Amino acid sequence: MEIALDAARAAAARGEVPVGAVVTDASGRVLAVAGNEVEARRDPSAHAEMLALREAARVTGDKLLPEATLTVTLEPCAMCAQAIAFFRVKRVVFGAYDPKGGAVEHGPRLFGQPTCHHAPEVVGGVRESEAGALLRDFFAALRS
Amino acid sequence: MEIALDAARAAAARGEVPVGAVVTDASGRVLAVAGNEVEARRDPSAHAEMLALREAARVTGDKLLPEATLTVTLEPCAMCAQAIAFFRVKRVVFGAYDPKGGAVEHGPRLFGQPTCHHAPEVVGGVRESEAGALLRDFFAALRS
């Protein structure tokens, strides 16, 4: 999570919403790290999770990541949660809960849907206060 | 929809699940066309809709597509439906209904979720039988 938080801080420094993600393999080796790049790419789908998952698949040469853990500073949205299921990610660890946009523990609770074909293990709230503070500080600065 | 069906047929010819998508602007001009590229890119998130939306944003130079129509041969999944909301697409026209993986008229019905911040107009079932036949033929050939 420290690596994901660093990626989130780096995203904030670039003017991006501070969310960071890291994909690790079964031994804990880092396969990919990404921060949000929505502004840099002018692409609303360029969430940290999407970029990290695609990069991890590229690095491993395998389009599925059944032994991988995705660690992300914010509860994934429906787009990222469904991508996590498509990539067959084994475990998702996230930081702050997102009652407005999250789709794992909130809203559509995607992994619990009968139509969801793959549900990873999920651990939420890891270093939640740090991950949440990054986002609160970022949006407070935007409004000030 | 004819353009989307052509993209789906081209995808099938490349060994991809035959789904095609096209993004048009307010005047009906084609901004982007894509077929599934999951196998070619070895990327389970490379759905036709995601590729077409990103390309349309690139072509217009605007990261939002508030006047655009996305026409796709299959009911979008949760990943693509959430991306459609993020790109602020005005209208979604789809072909075949997808009770197993669709997230517009099935499963999480994403655009109806209280947490969904943008719900496009939706027209489903357009040339449904042709779009569905493409998919059925593709999977029947795989099994034979």
TrEMBL record, chains A, B:
The record lists Zn(2+) as bound by: H47, C77, C80
* Pfam families registered for this protein in UniProt: dCMP_cyt_deam_1
Q: Which reaction does it catalyse?
A: adenosine(34) in tRNA + H2O + H(+) = inosine(34) in tRNA + NH4(+)
One biological process term from GO is: tRNA wobble adenosine to inosine editing
What Gene3D superfamilies does the record tag this protein with?
Cytidine Deaminase, domain 2
What are the UniProt keywords, alphabetically? Hydrolase, Metal-binding, tRNA processing, Zinc
Per the Swiss-Prot or TrEMBL record, the active site comprises E49
As cofactor, the record names: Zn(2+)
Which EC number(s) are documented for this chain?
A: 3.5.4.33
Q: Which residues form the CMP/dCMP-type deaminase domain?
A: 1-105
Q: How is the cofactor bound?
A: Binds 1 zinc ion per subunit.
Q: Name one GO molecular function term.
A: tRNA-specific adenosine-34 deaminase activity
Q: What does this protein do?
A: Catalyzes the deamination of adenosine to inosine at the wobble position 34 of tRNA(Arg2).
Q: How does it assemble?
A: Homodimer.
Q: What is this protein called?
A: tRNA-specific adenosine deaminase
Whose protein is this, by species? Falsiroseomonas algicola
